[in-house]
């Protein structure tokens, strides 16, 4: 973008004229001020994207954020939470006595190009040789037990963020952010106890009682963000969004350029994990697999994200 144009617009704004200019913006599309220094930024100018992306929604909880009660009531039904809003609030207060009160995020800037690699666990990563490409991103987000050891050539070695919930938890190295997706109050309690006394409760699957990870890099997904993904992105289809899809939406609130790896089936239509056995009958659970995949394809076609499917 021409720096003279920026100076010109800045001067107009300083004189209050840009209010008038805004109305005539469509005639001068090149006058849009760039939000990042990538070749293409994931901006909100695209009408389809604007119907889905709401940059005002806080992706992570922080000490000074208050969850709207309607979002709590939506969230508590996901895994049949029976405790009330005030229990939620006291638990969150305890969380922030232990973990950073505000999330560690790279702020957007016209001088910066924040790149995200969102790495799912699909078997289509096998033999992909995407490793070096994935590691080249500023932010590398991995999901649940998608480990790198033994698969470096295809999935890379770097992990800046790992998405987990208690039932999928694993130990992390000192430089990786633990990003908790909590589906019930017990998941928040787990986080506190796993870093202190140990957690000995039960869930639908066995839970790790302690965890090794950097306490100062813990981030917790905002339940209202989950609701937003369900409503704005999926138009309320399915019970709630899959972890993979919520991670993709999250990346759009963290980065200017997004590349997606390890999502979807392999070239024969089979769904399995790159680190597991080939399972020809794996279903995607209660999630709107088709709808989510369609949106991924739409974003890819509109050049909003790039989707690497491993076999093109
Ligand atoms: C975007 O999110 C903010 C914060 O949650 C909310 O107040 C606003 O109404 C949302 N906008 C749209 C268009 O949904």
Automatic annotation (TrEMBL):
Q: Which domain of life is it from?
A: Eukaryota
What protein am I looking at? CMP-N-acetylneuraminate-beta-galactosamide-alpha-2,3-sialyltransferase 1
EC code: 2.4.3.2, 2.4.3.4
Keyword Glycoprotein belongs to the record: yes
Task: Give the intrachain disulfide bonds.
Answer: 116-255
Pathway the protein acts in = Glycolipid biosynthesis; Protein modification; protein glycosylation
Matching Gene3D superfamilies, A to Z? Glycosyl transferase family 29 (3.90.1480.20)
The protein's location, in the record's own words, is: Golgi apparatus, Golgi stack membrane; Secreted
One Gene Ontology term of the biological-process aspect is: sialylation
Could you tell me the membrane topology recorded for this protein? Single-pass type II membrane protein
Q: Kindly give the InterPro entries that the UniProt entry links to this protein.
A: Beta-gal_alpha2-3_sialyltrans (IPR051757), Glyco_trans_29 (IPR001675), GT29-like_sf (IPR038578), Sialyl_trans (IPR012163)
The family this protein is said to belong to: Belongs to the glycosyltransferase 29 family.
Q: What chemistry does it catalyse, as a reaction equation?
A: a ganglioside GA1 (d18:1(4E)) + CMP-N-acetyl-beta-neuraminate = a ganglioside GM1b (d18:1(4E)) + CMP + H(+); a ganglioside GM1 (d18:1(4E)) + CMP-N-acetyl-beta-neuraminate = a ganglioside GD1a (d18:1(4E)) + CMP + H(+); ganglioside GM1 (d18:1(4E)/18:0) + CMP-N-acetyl-beta-neuraminate = ganglioside GD1a (18:1(4E)/18:0) + CMP + H(+); a ganglioside GA1 + CMP-N-acetyl-beta-neuraminate = a ganglioside GM1b + CMP + H(+)
């Amino acid at each position: 973008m021409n720096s003279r144009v920026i100076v010109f617009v800045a001067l107009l704004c300083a004189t209050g004229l840009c209010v008038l200019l805004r109305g005539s913006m469509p005639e001068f599309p090149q006058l849009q001020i760039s939000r990042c220094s990538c070749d293409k930024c994931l901006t909100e100018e695209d009408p389809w994207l604007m119907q889905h992306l709401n940059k005002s929604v806080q992706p992570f909880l922080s000490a000074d954020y208050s969850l709207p009660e309607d979002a709590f009531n939506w969230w508590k039904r996901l895994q049949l939470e029976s405790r009330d809003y005030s229990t939620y609030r006291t638990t969150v207060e305890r969380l922030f006595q232990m973990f950073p009160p505000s999330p560690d995020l790279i702020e957007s800037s016209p001088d910066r190009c924040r790149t995200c690699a969102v790495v799912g666990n699909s078997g289509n990563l096998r033999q992909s040789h995407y490793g070096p490409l994935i590691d080249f991103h500023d932010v590398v987000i991995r999901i649940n037990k998608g480990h790198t050891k033994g698969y470096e050539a295809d999935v890379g070695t770097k992990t800046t963020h790992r998405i987990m919930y208690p039932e999928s938890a694993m130990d992390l190295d000192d430089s990786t952010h633990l990003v908790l997706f909590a589906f019930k109050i017990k998941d928040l309690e787990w986080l506190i106890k796993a870093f202190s006394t140990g957690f000995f409760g039960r869930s639908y699957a066995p839970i790790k009682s302690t965890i090794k990870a950097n306490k100062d890099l813990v981030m917790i997904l905002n339940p209202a963000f989950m609701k937003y993904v369900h409503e704005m992105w999926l138009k309320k289809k399915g019970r709630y969004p899959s972890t993979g899809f919520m991670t993709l939406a999250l990346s759009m609130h963290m980065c200017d350029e997004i590349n997606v790896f390890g999502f979807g089936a392999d070239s024969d239509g089979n769904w399995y994990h790159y680190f597991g056995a080939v399972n020809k009958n794996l279903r995607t659970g209660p999630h709107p697999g088709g709808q989510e995949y369609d949106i991924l394809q739409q974003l890819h076609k509109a050049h909003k994200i790039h989707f690497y499917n491993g076999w093109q």
